[in-house]
Amino acid sequence: MTPLLAAVDLSKSYGARLALDGAALSVRAGEFVAVLGPSGAGKSTLFRCLTRLTEPDRGEVFIAGAPLHALRGRKLAQARRNIGVVFQQFNLIRRLSAIDNVLAGRLAGAPLWRVMARSFAAADEAIAIDALRQVDLGEHIDQRADTLSGGQQQRVAIARAIAQQSRIILADEPVASLDPDTAIAILTLLHGLTRSSNVAVVCSLHQPQLAERFADRILSMEAGRLS
Ligand SMILES: Nc1ncnc2c1ncn2[C@@H]1O[C@H](COP(=O)(O)OP(=O)(O)OP(=O)(O)O)[C@@H](O)[C@H]1O
Ligand SMILES: [Mg+2]
Asked: Is the pTM of this model over 0.90?
């Protein structure tokens, strides 16, 4: 069966430092893959190269067999919509509310004024609200992102990826800012998507016990090498 997400020989250097060293990855639909590794090992670089938000020096990425590395411009943007990303630094738009951040992710590719002008379908809004409720932010839907606590911001970032309804979710330490109970609730939610919607999840974590509990497969990252 064609993997939903595959990477071959992905490499990225920053000056003399090889941050990603020939990483290969193959993830099936419905699979939850955890990536463990110390700080600086290259986990975020891997995630950024998988989406080509950082251009790798070398290597190939395939989504359901289609080469992402061969795409440019609008086609690349379209293909990227198959991948929901939870960024380690959240990457929220600070001055927008929680729901507008989620909508901006869902309507990716559309100009931001559509969100500001409330120019979107009621169905999109309903999906965004539902995603925020799933991460237990139903009380904070209209609150500005920069007034939310760190853990709440992290959950907005997760809701944004969920509301995108993509086939693949890359989550870069999505529970790093959460208390233990909330962390388990969020990983249960992401794991549930693999089972209910056949989403492929790749999730970097720092806690091996969480990886053991939720992942179908655990990969380790060490000095840029994935194994
Ligand atoms: N834009 C950049 N410029 C220079 N060096 C970078 C850049 N991005 C990452 N690096 C370096 O590449 C290496 C891998 O960084 P990366 O952020 O991928 O690690 P990580 O495994 O995600 O770490 P953490 O667990 O702390 O998030 C590090 O040594 C980092 O300093
Ligand atoms: Mg990182």
From this structure: yes
